[in-house]
Amino acid sequence: MQTSQPAPTGIARFIPGLALIKSFSPALLSTEFVVAITVVAVLVPSAMAYGDLAGVTPVAGLYVALGAMVMYALFGTSKQVIMGPEATAAIMTATAVAPLAGGDAARYAALAALLAILVGVVSLLARVAKLGFITDLLSKPVLVGYIFGATLIVIGSQLGKMFGIKLESDKFFQQVGELISRLDEAHLLTVAIGVVCMAALLIMRRVSRKLPGALIVVVVAVIASYVLGWEAKGVAVVGPVPAGLPKITVPAVTVQDIFALLPAALALTILIYADEILTSRVFAAKHGQKVDANQEFVGIGAANIAAGFLTGFPAALSASRTTVCDQMGGKTQWVGLIAAALTIIFLLFLTPLLAPLPTAALGAIIIVASLGLIDIAAFRFLRQVRPAEFWLAVITAFGVLVVGVLAGILVAVVLSLIILLYRMARPHDALLDDVNAAGGTVYRGVTDKATVTTEPGLIVYRFDAPALIANAGAGLKCVILDAEPISDFDSTAAEALETLDADLERLGADLWIARANAPLRQLLTATGLTTRLGAEHIFPSVRAAVVAYQAQFGTARQ
């Protein structure tokens, strides 16, 4: 059972990571050290792959990881989140920076670093403005479609590496078409290496997700490339990787560069924050913890500013490394700090070992990691709940593939705003109490939402009130949702009900539903909510639900 912690005061309010000092113990440190080793085993090959994907040197991915892990540990509020280079942020960096760099590698690196700093500044300004609510602007269908489209773009960007062909196109459909038309130029040994690496990664993932598949593939590929002389046979390799730590550098850019990259920084901030806060809340709910939505802007901002000054590119939440941290039993951000220390050791002494690594192996790592983001089940769920939302997700995905990632984010936000405004125009919100009418009991809305209980420990509620759980108080046993006004029900609403039920379950309370019409009952069954809540907890009337409550809990109003 989780014990409530006192709210931080003083400087600890702004630097939550200071609490790590108080939590320090040799036993905790030894446990977190083992977790950190596993995180770094996943980090090194993937970070280099994402550096290559962003269009900078592969080692820049490690610079991003170093700065982001340290700064998020100090300023973030999630105990599990690991920040660093990630696929979508990397491909968006390449999309935004390449047109401005003019083929100049030094200018490209400076612009990528500037973009990270701009993301950091925008995030900090969002914290000042308390914009933690912006995740509500992205509905489930739009997010599902966006992630699918962005994932295909990432995969498309790696096709050239897998076939040993330098593709000229930078859009997904054109890349696929160009690859098909130039298959006769494919380097067969490169293709074989890429296919074997992908197969090995998929097999190891199937055997156990705890296996550091990317690390194993990198080690074997490096050894094989060195022994068999693959570079001499025409296989593209990473080449010399500079050893040593990155220098703190202010990017050499102009004011015009800042304005040119600002739209990309805004789009990236929205995407990075939405992904980070949604994922961190999942892990916080799992462990009975709390995440400060506005403070997370500070964590993201500090991580990106550090990545920029270390000549990196924008940092985002790493779903794979965060999951590894949680699965291995990571309890605090000591994991991130220790992983950063191990990254420093790698940068100082071990980078020369990576020179023979085939770039096809890096491409395979990115593609397999991206495949894990494709959620076909989410599309099936949307189609089952409401076909219109399914097609909205499809349109969003197609839009991202056609117009690109940056413009695709704008399309996603606009569509989400339209959906949000439509829903706001049709609100239903009331807590109910019984009144005597025509000799019987009728349940009608009341105005005092903070105090009313129909029975001791019972709330009867109609539709949606975000303050319901916070105002419920101790002793709550059940919430009865009066579903009569709900003429419409979609996947987002289904997800909200699941969240409400999970929140009530943690409080030791039940969620029951009364007066659901036939179409709504069908949707409850289709979404699995009937099974989750229990068919016996769906009642024909509010009165029937209250009587059942009295029979089960033996309460009656005094």
Written description of the protein model:
There is one protein chain. This protein is an alpha/beta fold and 558 residues long. It has 2 domains: 395 residues, no CATH class; 125 residues, Transcription Regulator spoIIAA (2-Layer Sandwich), CATH 3.30.750. It is built from 23 helices and 8 strands. The strands form 2 sheets. The protein has a 6-stranded mixed β-sheet with strand order 4-3-5-6-7-8. It has a two-stranded antiparallel ribbon with strand order 1-2. The relative contact order is 0.15. The N terminus is likely disordered.
- Overall geometry: globular
The whole-number mean of residue pLDDT values reads 83
Q: How much of the polypeptide forms β-strand, as a percent range?
A: 5-15%
What percentage of residues falls in helices of 4 or more residues?
Answer: 55-70%
How many structural domains are formed by the residues? 2
Structural class: alpha/beta
Contiguous low-pLDDT stretches (5 residues minimum) are: 1-5, 435-440, 444-453, 464-472
CA gyration radius, whole angstroms: 26 Å
Q: How do the strands line up in the largest sheet?
A: 4-3-5-6-7-8
Distance between the termini: 33 Å
So how many helices?
23
Largest sheet features: 6 strands, mixed
Q: Which oligomerization state do the chains in this entry correspond to?
A: single chain
The total count of strands amounts to 8
